Amino acid sequence: MNAISPAVPAPIGLLAELTHRCPLRCPYCSNPLELDRRSGELDTATWQRVLSEAAELGVLHIHLSGGEPTARADIVEITGHCARLGLYSNLITSGVAGALQKLEPLADVGLDHVQLSVQAADAARAERIGGLRGAQEQKLVFGRRVVELGLPLTLNAVIHRGNIDEVQAIIDLAVELGARRLEIAHTQYYGWAYLNRAALMPTRADVALSIAAVEAARARLAGRLVIDLVVPDYYAKYPKACAGGWGRRLMNVTPAGKVLPCHAAETIPGLEFWHVTEHSLGDIWHRSPAFNAYRGTDWMPEPCRSCDRRELDWGGCRCQALALAGDAAATDPACSLSPLHARIKDLAVSEAATEVAPDYRYRVIGGAPAAARQEEPA
Ligand code: SF4
Ligand code: SF4
User: Fold this and answer.
1) What is the pTM of this model?
2) With 90 as the cut, is the pLDDT of residue 85 above it?
3) How far apart (Å, rounded) are the C-alpha atoms in residues 339 and 187?
4) Which of 36, 99, 153, 187 could cross-link 70 (Cys pair, CB 3.0–4.6 Å)?
5) In the chain, what are the helix, strand and coil shares in percent, each to the nearest 5?
6) Ligand 1 centre and the CA of 135: distance in Å?
């Protein structure tokens, strides 16, 4: 572990997972398999105090997330508190259920930005993936209303085997809705996505086609739509700097108030996470064992330790290293320099090659994940 200098820079962003409740049941959801229940969620006053502490600490951006953040009755109050503190607020929403009714009040109290998820461009397919009938029309109405209200809109699409042939159609949808930004984010295999990896893994050839579609659209739509592309780890040469590097840029507060260096960090056994009801956010950022466990470079094994990319990707993802190498302190096997990389790539190739994808195991609160047929969502 590193000795932490008092000069550890402040985090830039805070992901506020206000609730794990969500009307959708996406099989790639990044939430943990053990979802927090409503009865354990932080109350309004505690969230407001946490946001005030975030502003004091130097955080600039608050990502109001979940689950579905508009499922909270106090979402407008919480967002207004961000605005009063001068924090840039980004609502990360599925755009369904009560989201539309809350949009105008959110704009009125100073919401800065909306990120709307879509599961696919084709409605039937989108609703099969998200596990909710009627969701697509609600999302489209919601997205149009965001633009009418003058709020900047980002569309987010998680890409996988079930929608990878729709990347061009998703780009067209973003243009039609008037989004300023589109995230084409290939699935990251943590949480529910790890559980569903065999159902979600695309082929390398399809990945290449999706990247080509994004590159062509970037040139065609320059000045009109910014397209961010997150490439899939299993086919990559180097891993991503997960959360911008462990304990470097982001904090993640769970619905029950646990503070994590990244949203999947709870999968790593033995890490001690501190809670907002027992410590201030600043104390957690600087002193909590979980934030210091993989901060910096001193913890790194070879080949990361002597690699000239070690301060670019910070050794990749600790949760992925645990899941794939059985050791959270190992080099992320997504890296081509990891001794396990060839095995991971072979695994991806063989999962993607199955003629029929396995059934999705949809995200559910409580109990074991329920298997459900891809073609027959409940
Ligand atoms: S990924 Fe899907 S299920 Fe998970 S929070 Fe987002 S909309 Fe809800
Ligand atoms: S060896 Fe480590 S630091 Fe170097 S590219 Fe791979 S994961 Fe990154």
Assistant:
1) 0.93
2) yes
3) 23
4) 99
5) 40, 15, 50
6) 12
